[in-house]
Amino acid sequence: MATLQDIDFGTPAASGETVTLTIDGRRVSAPAGTSIMRAARSLGTSIPKLCATDSLEAFGSCRVCLVEIEGRSGTPASCTTPVAEGMVVRTQSAKLARLRRNVVELYISDHPLDCLTCAANGNCELQDVAGSVGLRDVRYGDAGENHLDLPCDSSNPYFDFDPSKCIVCSRCVRACDEVQGTLALTVEGRGFASKIAASQAQPFLESECVSCGACVQACPTAALTERAVVEAGQPDRAVVTTCAYCGVGCAFKAEMKGEQLVRMTPYKDGAANHGHSCVKGRFAWGYATHKERILKPMIRASIREPWREVSWQDAIAHTAAEFKRIAARYGAHAVGGISSSRCTNEETYLVQKLVRAAFGVNNIDTCARVCHSPTGYGLKTTLGTSAGTQDFDSVEQADVIVVIGANPTDGHPVFASRMKRRLRQGAKLIVVDPRRIDLVRTPQIEAAHHLQLRPGTNVAVLTALAHVIVTEDLVDQAFVRERCDWDEFQEWAAFVADPARSPEATEARTGVPAAELRAAARLYATGGNAAIYYGLGVTEHSQGSTSVMAIANLAMATGNFGRPGVGVNPLRGQNNVQGACDMGSFPHEFSGYRHVSDGATRALIEEAWGVPLDPEPGLRIPNMLDAAVQGAFKAIYIQGEDILQSDPNTHHVAAGLAAMECVVVHDLFLNETANYAHVFLPGSTFLEKDGTFTNAERRIQRVRRVMTPLNGYEDWQITQLLCNALGYPMTYGHPSEIMDEIARLTPSFHGVSYAALEELGSIQWPCNAEAPAGTPIMHEDGFVRGKGRFVLTEYVPTDEKVGPRYPLLLTTGRILSQYNVGAQTRRTANVAWHEEDVLEIHPQDAEDRGVRDGDLVRLASRSGETVLRAKVSTRVAPGVVYTTFHHPGTQANVVTTDYSDWATNCPEYKVTAVQVTPSNGPSDWQQRYAEHAAQSRRTTPAERAS
Amino acid sequence: MSDFSGKLVLMANQIAAAFVAQGADAAKDAAAHIEAFWPPPMRAQITAYLAAGGEGLSDQAAAAVRRLRQAHGDGRAAAAVSRPAD
């Protein structure tokens, strides 16, 4: 378990040959390249330091960590001096003590002496060092020039920068450079005039700072301090848990005072994030105690009525009675449920168990339906398992990084920082994206190739890349012969070699210059270890699954599987989308991706659960909504999802929900879906529950309860209450018991338990007898399916066409500060960076329509229309517009369509034909919806209701 | 054609087109895919739609649906199928 203050070794670990030296008379061995400071700390000797910390390369500026080395003159800095065989070091002497005291005295001579009232009191390295060197007096007086009156920058909503407390050690600057890779900070001026500046000496909020918190984490004084610490004081305990935003799965220390969360600090030993964080995980947790959180269950007979608060007992009994009534009247197939990628593995497992065992149907689906379901299909088909192949550490050995349809600096920022570090070290970057995402060109990074394709042409581009690899004889024949089906490969090679699939033949359709595409293909095939990272720009298309298979084809043809630095890596969107899929949240398969028609699996689970199970697949989310509109689907239990805002074609989603007789929303807030609900069950946050999340690298990590659920129950307990009320008994006492059941029934989880997680820290599945410590890299000796399968990937254009009425292509996405539908992040100070969704439009398209930057515009498609502000930008190509879907006032999905991936029904969010025209106010629909939402959210307290 | 029938036709046509592009026995593979991922009521509806004329179904999609009908009469295919996950 974590301590509040981790051991700081001063400099990063090294990995050279072992050398032995003597420090203060004690022998110590360390890898060559280790600093004397780090070697000393491994002996338990803390050499005073200020500019050094082990997350950053040694800098050697503060001159506090001086040591003496036998046979060498002077007093070198221990942070920048590496160990050597036979070296004899003294860390303490009268001379060193005098030098250190003099140096620290100079620092303190220009530092406020307000330690007792300082926010860092008790957690200040300068204070500690002053105590360590025995500073008792400052001889310089206070008459000279100083920095004590410099104004504090409080522009950032989460932390203050007080330059009067800054010692210009550059740790913040180096953290921004080395850890985050944004390079937003600098030391401005020279000598006494030196000061830390954000961008062009701008306030932090207006600068390029992305508020990741790395600078705050690195600061040894109170110069950069979390405002929550200023207000609450220093925390008194820490609990390690896992972030509930995005699929990176950063481990954090929740630093507490009693049951009050004071701050979240990135956990140094977190295997996914290695001590780094982003603005969401680090700071945007205030939603957990937001005043709009609903803490009491509510019911109503009709969505036109106000909500009525009831007891938990009444709410559960009412819900169970409604589901029983509806199943009795319309049949069992008229009910279903949706599990949440924001909830734990244990909770999603229970929801699918409730649907299959208590409802008696397979009408269970999850939000992966609308994001990475094509990943599951495509990778299972080609490789044999529905998950990415690598761990995140793998990127450190990649020589070529291909980013397709993903925007890691916004969507997966902590992994993006690691990617950027590798790119700064010299790895080459290929970006395939209709937008000029930040990675295309940032300080010290520039993509070797940006294939700026037209939305919807992924398969044509990926197949053209394969064409170059095959026709220019760049295939790794040995790998393919050994690891893949040779006959299928030959058929595929002939298919892609067809001149009709060449870059030249497809250029007019894709918009990608043939020469650029050829160069990118050559780099991918010949540049060394090549790793593909992709996102929803690949999956959310009518050919999403085909694109995933085309990606797998490329990696197999070039031998980029089974070792560090390579592979096919889906960047998962939500925190537990991998886990929700693993746990059997899809209507056609049980946990571990076993089809419901598999008799042996069904028999195993039937015996464990004590009920017969349906051997037929159930309804997917869009099927449920279609069936509801038809009158055949009448009741749904939705845990932790807001399908009205997140799913495509809002009008259709609303019609489906409105047609049901019982919609149960189990969530933190009255979200947009709740405007069509009859029962509201208050949910618990990740801070209030025990469980596990599984990140994009298949890493299972613990979520630990740090405070009592404000709503009274953890979410798994609520599902259990409902299950029992339905007559199917559940008696779990703790989520660890649920994980034990998952492990017992799921081959790839056989070795997973809470005890194993405590021992190992985290586990990447498969974890079983063959891999007791888990599997960081898949397919090392062979593909899970046996021989890798090449699939022919013919480009089939989407049915969504541009034309005179809708001449532009809309593509949608996410930004850094907001998360998914924004239910959490809109209820934090992150709105400082993103108050509303805007429409990016190319200057030429704007000019043609008389649209200026900041104007309100009407965005219309065949599905619907909405009004939002225009942002004129060259990030998008002419003919393409882009927006986000974080705000319900905009509801970008009013515009998106029902078109979906052929294999999985994953919606085609990335291609909608639209028109943009000037507007002077909200659309009719926006006005009607705002009125409906206000009416629907009326609440009658329990005392008035009774 | 109702909206819902239209959707089923679109989905079936997409699936058939995908397997035609993969170059194998498209009707068999498309039928297997529908069997693996569509619940019985949807399979029954597309089967009934084809029986009523099948307007808008591509030839390959119709062939796939016909295999469902010929197999069991209730939308279930007889051929052993691989069932890839999504």
Q: Can you offer a commentary on this structure?
A:
The complex is a heterodimer of chains A (946) and B (86). Helix content of chain A is 30%, strand content 16%. With 946 residues, chain A is α/β, with parallel strands linked by helices. In chain A, helix 9 packs parallel to helix 25 and helix 13 (458-471) packs across helix 17 (514-526). The longest helix of chain B has 19 residues, at 3-21. Chain B has helices at residues 3-21, 26-37, 40-51, 59-72. Chain A binds chain B through residues 333, 362-363, 373-374, 376-377, 380-381, 386, 491, 495, 542-543, 545-546, 586-589, 593, 595, 597-598, 616-620, 623, 626-627, 629-630, 632, 791-794, 796, 799, 898, 900, 902-905, and chain B through 3-4, 7, 10-11, 14-15, 17-18, 21-23, 33, 36-42, 83-86.
Outline the secondary-structure elements.
The complex is a heterodimer of chains A (946) and B (86).
Chain A: E1 18-23, E2 26-31, H1 36-42, E3 68-69, E4 88-90, H2 94-109, H3 125-133, E5 159-161, H4 171-180, E6 185-188, E7 195-198, H5 214-218, E8 224-226, H6 227-232, E9 237-242, E10 251-257, E11 260-266, H7 279-283, E12 298-299, E13 307-309, H8 312-330, E14 335-339, H9 345-359, E15 364-366, H10 373-382, E16 400-404, H11 408-411, H12 413-424, E17 428-432, E18 441-442, E19 445-446, E20 449-451, H13 458-471, H14 477-483, H15 486-497, H16 503-510, H17 514-526, E21 530-534, H18 536-539, H19 544-557, E22 568-570, H20 577-582, E23 589-590, E24 594-595, H21 599-609, H22 621-630, E25 635-639, H23 643-646, H24 650-658, E26 662-667, E27 679-682, E28 691-694, E29 699-703, H25 715-725, H26 735-745, H27 754-760, E30 763-764, E31 808-813, E32 838-841, H28 843-849, E33 856-860, E34 865-872, E35 880-884, E36 912-918, H29 924-936, E37 939-940, H30 942-945
Parallel strand pairs in A: 1-4, 13-37, 14-15, 14-25, 16-17, 16-21, 17-20, 21-22, 25-26, 26-27, 31-35, 32-34
Antiparallel strand pairs in A: 1-2, 3-4, 5-8, 6-7, 9-10, 10-11, 12-13, 12-27, 18-19, 23-24, 28-29, 29-30, 31-36, 32-35, 33-34, 33-36
Helix pairs in contact in A: 2-3, 8-25, 9-25, 9-26, 10-19, 13-16, 13-17, 13-19, 16-17, 22-24
Chain B: H1 3-21, H2 26-37, H3 40-51, H4 59-72
Helix pairs in contact in B: 1-2, 1-3, 1-4, 2-4, 3-4
